[in-house]
Each structure stands twice: as structure tokens, then as C-alpha cells.
Amino acid sequence: MIETIKLTKRYGDLIAANEISIKLDQGDVFGFIGPNGSGKTTTMRMIATLLNPDYGECYVCGKSIYTNPEEIRRLVGYMPDFFGVYDDMTVIEYLEFFASTYRINGPDRRKVCEEKLELVDMSFKRDAMVNQLSRGQTQRIGLARTLLHDPQVLLLDEPASGLDPRARIEIRKLLRRLGEMNKTIIVSSHILPELADVCTRVGIIEKGNMLADDYVADVMKKAREAILLEVRVTENQEKAASLLEQQDVVRNVSMRSDTIYVTLKPGTEDYSELSTVLFENGFRIIQFREEEVNLETAFMELTKGLQQ
Ligand SMILES: Nc1ncnc2c1ncn2[C@@H]1O[C@H](COP(=O)(O)OP(=O)(O)OP(=O)(O)O)[C@@H](O)[C@H]1O
């Protein structure tokens, strides 16, 4: 659906995007994570055919950005990080104006605009003036505008930036809804946890270089290669810890306040013997659980040492 091959853009001596290769299938939601100035916008603008690369290739739905830019623009909905809204226009007029630029005319136009407003949960503001909307509402109208021509591919540049926590949650819900509609989405952010739970894939970019690119499920799997258990027993914690340490599946054991932390050997799936051995030795277990895998920590671990 989207394939970039060594896509590169230079500004003088600065390499804003350095040989970026990404391959996405239909329905993939790709979280493009990187700090300010890392090259996210540059890469997205090249895919959207708004910026010419210096090197590399990019295909959208099999069409090359060099030979079929106009077709790609029909297939792609690009939402920039900043977009102007116009004074003296209601929400519905604003959308109808952009619908006309996509040559959506006649009775269809109003219908399409109303549908998109509903999709972004903004029907209640259809007659409000666009310059009187909150930042979160403006972002949602921007998204509705991006969806007007029903693009198969969405490139969303920091759609959640500057929003309060509630509005961020709303944007995430919307992204999930769009993913369920089988659109292929690249959504950028400088904060990983913001996107982790809505993405199927996550890529990290820094100073124009792609540091990591993986399926979220695989990142989680790698993070789980050494499972960490949190165990608490009613008394004799130290004895319980040394008993656990002697078990085959255990790599090491440490203690912090009243909790025993047990790291299992990589690849261990069944560790039920640990609770059995505690029970058989008379310990009363009050907690026995896997530590929750945190995607952000996992990703930082995976990219450690690459960010020189
Ligand atoms: N037209 C331009 N001329 C010169 N340098 C540019 C130009 N556009 C971008 N850059 C530089 O290229 C680098 C990448 O910028 P880009 O906007 O792609 O980053 P970004 O990851 O989208 O950042 P942000 O999160 O701040 O939007 C930055 O160092 C930026 O200053």
C-alpha cells in the first residue's frame, strides 16, 4: 500500500530524511515517532507528493510519486501539523468549500460533508463558526476535511499535538475507528505512549534516521522474552526468594521492600511450578503476577545505543 525505498531529502548540509524505507500494508496504522525536527514532516510530505526527494523511491498503492503524483493525491489524505481555518465561515461551509476543491458537487456534496462531520463526532458544531472552535474541535474538523475524498491512505502529522488529555483520547478513538475502516495510516507524534495502543506498527526516527521499525506485537514479544514476576508471600520472604532462585526456569531473583522480583530465563512460557513449589513448602502467596510490559520502555530498550 505504501512503500518508501531509501527516501532521502537534504537541505544544504542537513539530511532531513536519510534513506527512509517503510513498507505498509492495507489496514496498517504506523506510529511515526520522533522528537521535533527529526524528519517526520519531511518524510510525510514526500509520500504526499508535496516535496521532491533528492534520492529514493516511493510507491502508494503501486503508483510512483515521480510518475503518478496526481493519482497519489487522490488516494492520499494529508493532514498537516498546522492548517489555517478561515474566518467568517461555518463548519459546514468550510467543509463544503474543500469538498468543491475535490470536485464533489451537487447534492452529494452536502451529504459527504455531513457524513464526515458525523464520523469525527462534530455534527453538533455544523453551524458554528470555524474560528470559534477549540483546538481539539479544530483538529477534528481538519480530519473531516482530510477524509472528504475518501482517501485510502491517511498521513496525519501530529494530530494530537497541543490537545488536552480528553481531546487526545478522542483523537485516539478516531484513529482506531479509521484503522477499523481498513485505511492505511501514518500518524506522527513525538510521544510514543500516545500512539502505542492504536498502532499496529511503530517506527522511531531521529535526526533523519530510522532507528527502529517493528510490529507492536513483535516489540511486545521481544519485551516479554525475559518475563518478570512480582511475588509476595505472607512471611519469610527471604527464604521464599532463595527457594525460587533454585528453580530451573529462574534466571535471577531480587527483593525490594516486601516484593520478590523473579526474572525468568528467556523463552520460558510455563512457570506454574514456581507457585506450586512455594505452596508445597508452606508459603502463603498473596501476590503472584507478571509485571505489565510497558511498550515505551521496551522500545527504548530496543533502540538503546542506536541514537548516537
Ligand atoms: N524548507 C526547509 N529548509 C531547510 N531546512 C528544513 C526545511 N524544512 C525542514 N527543515 C529541517 O529539516 C529537519 C526535519 O524537519 P521536519 O519538519 O521534517 O521534522 P519533524 O520531525 O516533522 O519535526 P516537528 O515535530 O517539529 O514537526 C529539521 O532540522 C528542519 O529544521
From TrEMBL:
Pfam families: ABC_tran. The keyword Metal-binding does not apply. Keywords: ATP-binding, Nucleotide-binding, Transport. One of its GO terms (molecular function) is ATP hydrolysis activity. The keyword Chloroplast does not apply. Gene3D superfamilies: P-loop containing nucleotide triphosphate hydrolases (3.40.50.300). Residues 2-232 form the ABC transporter domain. InterPro entries: AAA+_ATPase (IPR003593), ABC_transporter-like_ATP-bd (IPR003439), P-loop_NTPase (IPR027417). Belongs to the ABC transporter superfamily. This is Putative ABC transporter ATP-binding protein YbhF.
